[in-house]
Each structure stands twice: as C-alpha cells, then as structure tokens.
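Reviewer comment 2.1 asked that we show a complete input and output for one of the modelled complexes. We chose the zinc ion case, as it is the one discussed in the main text.
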Amino acid sequence: MPGSRRVCAEAGCPTLVEAGARGGRCLDHRRQVERERGSATARGYDYTHTQLSKRMRAEAVGMTCHLCGDRMAADQDLALDHTGDRSGYRGVVHLSCNARDGALRGNAQRLR
Ligand SMILES: [Zn+2]
Ligand SMILES: [Zn+2]
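Response of the prediction step:
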C-alpha cells in the first residue's frame, strides 16, 4: 500500500494530497493560502494588528481624534493611525479622518 492520501482540505477540491502535506491542502491551495497570508501581512493587517486595533479602538471611545479634534464615540467607525513609515501608531482616529489623512499623505509622496 503506497503512502496514504486524502483529498485536499479546501472545501470542494477533489485533488488528492499526501497525508503529511502541510495544512492538508493540494499545491494550488497551499499557494493560495500563502498568497492570502502574504498580502494581508503586507497591508499591515495581520493577526497581531487585528487584536491590537480592536483593543485600542475600545480604549479610544471618549478620547479626542487628533486629526479633527472631535470626540470618538462607540458607534463611529474608528481606525488606527499609522506613522508615515508604518513602524508604529500615533493613536486612534475616526476612520473617515484616517482615510482623508492617508489620501493627503499619498499625494504628498507622489509630489516628491
Ligand atoms: Zn486543493
Ligand atoms: Zn476625526
């Protein structure tokens, strides 16, 4: 009996994979998982960021958004404001303020 095989762990994929394959997925789906993980990390939205941003947003309610000076409420969409080089956070701001600030920064970088 050759090495045991089973179908890919990805729902609906009929490809047979070696029982010891990483994640139990076929080559295509292993690549897909890695690609998704890679792009998520590149955007700065990895698991740690998600946990951190959840906690920071919860603590920010009632504090002042440093971009517009208004208070942040629990029913508003809030976002973490990254430093320009994305090495840290300057604080929590309104999602809309963050988007506007990001657009301004993007323009400034394009002009350079
Ligand atoms: Zn597959
Ligand atoms: Zn704001």
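Residues 65, 67-68, 70, 93-94, 97 surround zinc ion (ligand 2) (CB under 6 Å). We note this here for comparison with the apo prediction described in Section 3.2.
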